[in-house]
Amino acid sequence: METTLARTGGYTNAFTSPDWTAYFQTLPSSALEIALLFEADRMANSLFDHLEVETERTVILSEREGNENEPQFLLGEAVQQAAFKQHPYRNEVLGSTQDLLSLTRDDLYGHYRNYYQPSNALLCLAGSFDIDEALSLINKHFEPIENSEPVRSIPIPENEITSAQRVELDGPGETDYIQIAWRSPKASDPDFFAYSLIESILSGPSTLNMFGSGGIGNRSSRLYRELVEKQVAASVYGSLSASIDPGIYTLYITCRGDHTPDEVIYRIDQVIDTFLNETPSIEEMIIALKQARANFAYGSDNITNQAFWLGYAQSFADYSWFTDYVNRLENVSREDIIRVARQYLDPAHRVTGIYRNRNGAANGS
Amino acid sequence: MVLKSLNTAALPGADTIFRKSYPNGSTFLAYPNPTSPAVYFRGYLPVGSISDPDGKNGLSSFLAAMLSTGTHQHEFNQLHTLIESCGASISISSGSLSTIFSGQCLKEDLPLILGLLLEMLSQPSFPQEHFARLQQQLATIFKIQSQDPQEMASQAFDRLYYRGHPYAHPEIGYPQTVSTINLEDLRAFHADFLGPKGLVIAVAGGMDVEKTADLFEQIFSNWDAPIQQIQADLPDWQPHREPIREHIAIPEKSQSDLIIGTSAPAGMSDEYQICALGNSILGQFGMMGRIGESVRERSGLAYFAGSTLEVGIGPSCWKVIAGVNPDNLEKALGKIREELKRFINELVTQAELSDVKQQALGQLPISLESNAGIVRFLLSLQRYELSLDYLRELPDILESVTAQDILTCAQKYWDLESLVITSAGRPL
Question: Would A340 be classed as within a structural domain?
Answer without folding.
Answer: yes
